[in-house]
Design a protein that fits this description.
The chain has helices at 7-25, 27-38, 47-73, 84-114, 117-148. By secondary structure, the chain is mostly helical. The protein has one domain (7-156). Helix 1 (7-25) packs antiparallel against helix 3 (47-73), helix 2 (27-38) crosses helix 3 (47-73) and helix 3 (47-73) crosses helix 4. The longest helix has 32 residues, at 117-148.
Length: 160
């Protein structure tokens, strides 16, 4: 049975985290460009707009790769001493994070490349949900580390 994630899984986790953080930081520029698009105005090219669009597509590719690895290699089990309710919450949060990391780039691409207003609105809602779930994910990891003292976070560190 696995007791840690593979090097590829760990690297993908942290690279995707950095890319998603960048997406949030670039939100102002893409939002302004979208507003101009909706008003039928030409938008001034800003490199962070392109970075947001292509960053989203890169996230989609990396998340699909991560899902493939998880399906073929698996993942370490949750600690056996963890209450059933926490195991369920962890499972739902992880599945939801994966779903959002796929749906956000797709909805963003449909909005940006297809001009689909409903996709843009969905993208905004999913953006807020992802932020909330990431916060819950971080809080869960910290709870395991400092309250339950399961050393769960060690599974996501690269070893020497």
């Amino acid at each position: 049975m696995l007791n840690t994630y593979s090097r590829a899984q760990i690297l993908l986790h942290w690279v995707i985290f950095v890319l998603i953080t960048a997406q949030y930081l670039q939100h102002e520029w893409i939002s302004e460009a979208w507003d101009k698009f909706e008003d039928g105005l030409p938008s001034d090219f800003h490199p962070l707009v392109a970075a947001h669009v292509f960053g989203g597509l890169l996230i989609l590719v990396l998340v699909l790769w991560r899902i493939k690895i998880r399906l073929t290699r698996g993942a370490p089990p949750v600690p056996t001493e963890e209450p059933a309710a926490l195991k369920l919450v962890a499972h739902v949060v992880h599945l939801s994070l994966y779903a959002l990391m796929v749906l956000l780039p797709i909805s963003g691409a449909l909005a940006w490349f297809g001009g689909v207003e409903a996709a843009a609105e969905t993208h905004e809602v999913l953006r807020a949900v992802l932020l909330a779930l990431v916060a819950l994910h971080v809080l869960g990891a910290l709870y395991h580390q400092f309250v339950l003292k399961t050393d769960l976070m060690a599974r996501m560190k690269l070893s020497g």
